[in-house]
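User: Please fill in residues for this 185-position structure.
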């Protein structure tokens, strides 16, 4: 069996992989009290269309860990390009839940889930599965609603900084494949 690479080597290589940035918000129990929190996530992805599932990772040492373990709903807020400051805010580890939302425009839905204002898209989710994965938990959410406001771009994390999506890339066409006969593969 091969030994895994050192964490710092892995982290350096992963900085070359652009990641979509979202803020997951929820209300749940943490250390015996109800707490509303948010967390900046760089591991968000779709999982399935039927049923519609999304996933992301939460560190076991994060303050959001207990909230995610006990919440009945959560929201995935896709940040627009003008909201990179929110990615930074919700990534600060020492803030209380109250401090996280201080001066941050948001509303709370009927289920007690905070919704950040002005996002590019929002997924309303219920917990579907949670899978222990090393020092993180992979959370899978069932998408029960989508808010699709006007597209304001998206925030990516790349090379240790927040970036906008940028313009669409032109694709270079490849030469057609020349086949000698229809039987070759």
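Assistant: Residues filled in for all 185 positions:
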């Amino acid at each position: 069996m091969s030994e895994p690479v050192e964490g710092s080597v892995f982290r350096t290589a992963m900085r070359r992989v652009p990641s979509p940035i979202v803020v997951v918000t929820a209300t749940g129990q943490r250390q015996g009290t109800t707490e509303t929190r948010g967390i900046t996530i760089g591991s968000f992805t779709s999982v399935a269309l039927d049923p519609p599932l999304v996933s992301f990772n939460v560190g076991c040492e994060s303050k959001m860990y207990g909230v995610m373990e006990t919440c009945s709903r959560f929201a995935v807020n896709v940040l627009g390009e003008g909201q990179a400051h929110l990615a930074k805010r919700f990534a600060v580890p020492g803030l209380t839940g109250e401090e996280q939302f201080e001066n941050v425009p948001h509303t709370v839905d009927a289920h007690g889930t905070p919704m950040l204002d002005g996002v590019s898209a929002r997924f309303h989710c219920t917990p579907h599965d949670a899978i222990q994965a090393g020092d993180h938990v992979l959370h899978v959410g069932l998408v029960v609603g989508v808010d699709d406001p006007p597209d304001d771009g998206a925030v990516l994390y790349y090379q240790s900084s927040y970036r906008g999506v940028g313009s669409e890339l032109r694709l270079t066409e490849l030469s057609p494949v020349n086949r000698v006969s229809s039987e070759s593969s």
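For context: The longest helix spans residues 7-14.
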